[in-house]
Structures are given as structure tokens and as C-alpha cells.
Specification:
The protein is of the alpha+beta class. The chain has 10 helices and 17 strands. It has 3 domains: 67 residues, no CATH class; 126 residues, Elongation Factor Tu (Ef-tu), domain 3 (Beta Barrel), CATH 2.40.30.10; 153 residues, Nucleotide-binding domain of ferredoxin-NADP reductase (FNR) module (Rossmann fold, 3-Layer(aba) Sandwich).
């Protein structure tokens, strides 16, 4: 339910009664609660209910008949709603939950009995002048029993060939999947990864990561041991009108690519019968423009769907933040914190963060500042959003 206060002055003396469920903590959250507040506190209460995933059953005032509503997730007042709340109209205002966890495939193949996938493609994702090495690698999954299938937001394990220093087989490494469930070719039997070669210095020697180098060097036709899929933290909601904020650095873009392809690639939309009508906002961090991954695709989505997709970049070695330092993704979040937070106030909004763990403190700081400006406590709200399955983080 949306409550408009736009035509009422601050002297309004009405009292409002709100009957809400799934609001509070412990037993309170499981029980229906009746709250009575004066008009001046109504907007704040509605925002808090929305942020905590509450469902308003009845709203009434001293001069209005009680208004019964379906058991839907609360939305913030109209004058507090962001542009994200103004998605294209649909037949239902109910915010759908994320994909049912019971329906998500997990561990179809395990380390002791992996699936042997065939490499069908391996190419660089970087432009000239980029730092490091990042490749897009695709594997054929056809012929499995069971078929290795997955959904957006999951990961697979790769067991590299060879043995470790102790003569034992290498352990698996997990990689976020970079293709939708239909695969890059929409044939339903491939999976793609976005892999950065790990390199670091030790005792004056450059050390290459075992699995990342194995994958970046691999040739088409080679067989690779694959496990999984795993992961339920980064699943997209089913709601076609959901709003999605994505925060990514480096190869943390992999799950975001799956979401955006599912949302905006015409062939994908036709294939899955899921037509996204909400708002999506991608914040992407990279050291140089040449290191932006899948940049052409994201620019195309922004041009073709300007009402639904925003693409904000943070290029650390080419741009400066407000303090004259390097521009990191947390700086872009800080610049847009108020608007981001207004999106989050809408219960249809989900936030996904993936990439280097070092991005988390800066983003938390920006969100805390925005929450404080609204009289709210981010340290309290963040776990509430996570419990409501609206705050999704996968960092390393």
C-alpha cells in the first residue's frame, strides 16, 4: 500500500492505525501487530515497515474507513518513493520472493565424481593497454547424467589438471558463472566463466595462480573437471518489476552479466519468457577503461533500455574522487548514496555486491551516511535487509 501525504500539512492531527504482519523480531515478527501513530510519524513508520519486509494488512485513520489490503509487502509513501518505484504497471502489485531455494540445483556433480566438460571457447575480455589478464571461457555441458544445469547467481567448481607440491590432485576452485541458465548460445547446455589470472610476488618471484592460469591457458577441445553448481546467496527475484542495484569490481561482474543478459538481451527475453520491467543500476569498478569487462554489452543495454538501466563506472587510475584521490566504486556509491537509499526503501529493490572484499567497508560507510541523514541506523537495517533476502553479498 502506498500512502500519499502530499496534500496534507504538518498540522494534520489525525491518528493512524496500521495492522502489520512479519514486522519486528522474534515472536513479534510471527504475530500480527496493531500500531497507532500520529500523522507526523506515519511516513517514518511506513518506511521502517518496508525496510524490514513487513506486510500491511489494514490501514485506517480517524476520518477514514479501514482499508483492507492483501498480504503484500509494504511500499514506502508516494512522496518518499524513488523513480525506481515507478516501473511499468502490471497486473499485480505483490513483490515476489526470490527463486524458491528448493528449486535451485545444487551439487549435481561432486569432487569425487566431477563432470567432464569440453572447452568450446576461450578469449580475452580486455582491450589494449589493460592491466593483467582476464578471459571468457565456455564449456559444453551436454551429455551429463544428470544434466549439469544452473540458474543465474550460482557458481561452479573447477579442478585443474596436475598435482600439488605434495603429489596430490589439485583442490577445486569456485568461480561465479557468467552466463545465464541458457548459456551464451541459448542452447541450454553450456556454461561460461570470467576468469582473471592470479599473479603475485613472493621472494622476488612472480607466482601464477594454479587454477586461474590453467583456465586462461586452456585450449578449445580440452576436457575439464567441473563440480556443482553451488550457491543460493546471489539468486535473482522472480518479480519482473523488481529493482536491482549491482555493485561489482573486476571479475565480480560475472553474476551481474547473467542478470543483465536475462533482463535485456532480446533473445534471452524471448527464450525465458521473463520480461524485466523494473529498474537496474550497475556500478562497475575497474583500474582502467581497458579493464572494463563486457562494457560494450552494458553500454548497448543502456542505450536500448534507458528507462530501465543505468550504468555507472569507477575507473580508479583515470578518474578522481571528490577528495582528489583515485575513483573507486565506493566513491561512486557515496556520490549517489541518497538516491541508492531511496531505491532501497522500496521493498521491491534488491542489492547485489560481488568482487574484492575491500569494497565492503567503503560501501558500508556510504550507506551508513545516507541512512543517518534519514534518521535510520544502517547497522540495524542491513541485517534486516539480508533477512528479507534483499541484500546479497559475495566477496573474496
Amino acid at each position: 500500500m502506498r500512502v500519499s501525504t502530499g496534500r496534507v500539512t504538518g498540522s494534520d492531527g489525525r491518528m493512524f492505525t496500521v495492522v502489520v504482519e512479519s514486522f519486528g523480531v522474534g515472536r513479534q515478527r510471527r504475530a500480527e501487530r496493531v500500531l497507532t501513530v500520529p500523522f507526523e510519524r506515519l511516513q517514518s513508520l511506513m518506511q521502517t515497515i518496508a525496510l524490514q519486509g513487513g506486510r500491511i494488512r489494514v490501514l485506517s485513520s480517524t476520518d477514514l474507513e479501514p482499508t483492507a489490503t492483501p498480504a503484500t509487502t509494504a511500499t514506502p509513501p508516494a512522496d518518499a518513493a524513488s523513480p525506481a518505484a515507478n516501473a511499468a504497471p502490471t497486473s499485480s502489485s505483490t513483490a515476489k520472493a526470490p527463486v524458491s531455494h528448493a528449486d535451485v540445483p545444487v551439487n549435481l556433480y561432486k569432487p569425487k565424481a566431477p563432470f567432464l566438460g569440453t572447452v568450446t571457447g576461450n578469449y580475452s575480455l580486455l582491450a589494449d593497454g589493460a592491466i593483467g589478464r582476464v578471459n571468457h571461457i565456455t564449456f559444453d555441458l551436454a551429455g551429463g547424467d544428470p544434466q549439469l544445469h544452473y540458474v543465474e547467481g550460482q557458481s561452479i567448481g573447477i579442478i585443474p589438471d596436475g598435482e600439488d607440491a605434495n603429489g596430490k590432485p589439485h583442490k577445486l576452485r569456485l568461480y561465479s558463472i557468467a552466463s545465464t541458465r541458457h548459456g551464451d548460445d541459448l542452447a541450454d547446455h553450456t556454461v561460461s566463466l570470467c576468469v582473471r589470472q592470479l599473479q603475485y610476488e613472493k621472494d622476488g618471484e612472480t607466482i601464477n595462480g594454479v587454477c586461474s592460469t590453467f583456465l586462461c591457458d586452456i585450449e578449445p577441445g580440452a576436457k575439464v573437471k567441473i563440480t556443482g553448481p553451488v550457491g543460493k546467496e546471489m539468486l535473482l527475484p522472480d518479480d519482473e518489476e523488481a529493482n536491482v542495484i549491482m555493485l561489482a569490481t573486476g571479475t565480480g561482474i560475472a553474476p551481474m552479466r547473467t542478470y543483465l543478459r536475462r533482463m535485456f538481451e532480446p533473445a534471452e527475453r524471448d527464450k525465458n519468457g521473463w520480461h524485466f520491467r523494473g529498474k537496474a543500476w550497475l556500478f562497475m569498478g575497474a583500474p582502467k577503461t581497458a579493464n572494463l569487462l563486457y562494457d560494450d554489452d552494458f553500454n548497448r543495454y543502456q542505450a536500448e533500455f534507458p528507462e530501465n538501466f543505468r550504468y555507472t563506472k569507477a575507473i580508479s587510475r583515470e578518474e578522481q574522487n571528490a577528495k582528489g584521490g583515485r575513483m573507486y566504486i565506493q566513491d561512486r556509491v557515496l556520490e549517489n548514496a541518497e538516491e541508492i537509499f531511496s531505491w532501497i526503501e522500496n521493498p521491491k529493490t534488491h542489492v547485489y555486491m560481488c568482487g574484492l572484499r575491500g569494497m565492503e567497508p567503503g560501501i558500508d560507510e556510504a550507506m551508513s551516511a545516507a541512512a543517518t541523514a534519514k534518521g535510520l541506523d544502517w547497522a540495524t537495517l542491513r541485517p534486516q535487509l539480508k533477512k528479507a533476502e534483499r541484500w546479497h553479498v559475495e566477496t573474496y
